[in-house]
Amino acid sequence: MEPVKEWKGRATLVDLLDRVFDKGVVIHADVIISVAGIPLIGVNLRAALAGMETMLEYGLMQDMDARTRMWEAQHRKSKEVSLRDGEELILKIFGSYYYSKGIYTAWKSGRFYFTTTRLFLYQQDIAEIVFETPLNKIKAMAIRSERSFTGKDRDIIYLSLEGGKIARVSVLETVEFEDKLQHLVEEAGVILDGEAALMEEFDERASSFLVDGEKIFCTGKIWHLLPEGGIMTDAWKPGYLYLTNKRLCWWYEFGCKIAFQVPVEEITGATKERRNLSTVLKDKEVLDVIYNGTGFKEVVSFSGKETEQWVNALNKTISMGGQTGEDRETETCPQCGRTASIKELLEQGCSMCGWVSPVRNKEVHKIKALA
Fold this sequence. Notes:
Layout: H1 13-22, E1 25-35, E2 38-49, H2 52-57, H3 62-78, E3 89-101, E4 104-115, E5 118-123, E6 128-134, E7 138-147, E8 153-161, E9 166-171, H4 174-187, H5 195-198, E10 216-226, E11 235-244, E12 247-252, E13 257-263, E14 267-275, E15 284-292, E16 297-303, H6 307-319, E17 330-332, E18 339-341, H7 342-347, H8 358-370
Antiparallel strand pairs: 1-2, 3-4, 3-9, 4-5, 5-6, 7-8, 8-9, 10-11, 10-16, 11-12, 12-13, 14-15, 15-16, 17-18
């Protein structure tokens, strides 16, 4: 390296880095360490500092660079995943899997491998398969847009596996992943169920408060105006709103609990309007739900992006007399042909001809026998 002297009056860190990577820097220094004016240690320092391209250009460190590149190539090759006998690779796509074991939870990234028999996520750096499932064990698939810790929305793919396990994955190309998985699973002889089949299964929050026979029909992230209590004044808090076949309830995200609930049959109205939530949050959509309280009408307020959908869902529930899901599904009486709700026919029988479900008959006879 030929030393070049260029003086600009003042050198910045950017100038120094540019010089190091472009032309290189030769350091030649004599350092003397003294204590109380007495020289104790002498250092004669000679060093060349430059980018690898500059070093190789001047014939320095060539052997070391060749050995390093050879080792890295062999190391990477040895970490390639091995397919099973008769297994064929169909697609490889970058993504991540939500790993949860005990108290440890994290998104683990790698490459998803689609083969003729299975789907798995492989981390090359540690040569480990993080997630794996046979294609014929995948029972349902659903895709939802969720807010990540970076504040951006991304698609999360939920897979229902045999045994009741739910796998959460995220990939760069959601549509390609969905199409390929659908095709391969169908070739394996399985027809995937849609989002409705997964609605209750993948909602970890709901599993903590749902009761026997309760099913979710609408859910979404929404803000709720919590009423004052103790020293706390009215405040808008984030959470999740649920409409089930039994109640409308709101899950307080921070407190991890149900902070509001009302039976569906007590809901009498739902409207939306634009209001100021605070001095900062102005002109926001607000959903007002009217319900029967203790002797008088009460109003509870929510705010979010999907207020129109909530108004429609709640008003539909009100028009059906508080019935949702199975309660709204109708069937004809097998004896006289009268149309009635499935729930009514199974639990009460037909009010027109007196027909009673065989299952109901058995229960009645069993109760009489015990009595």
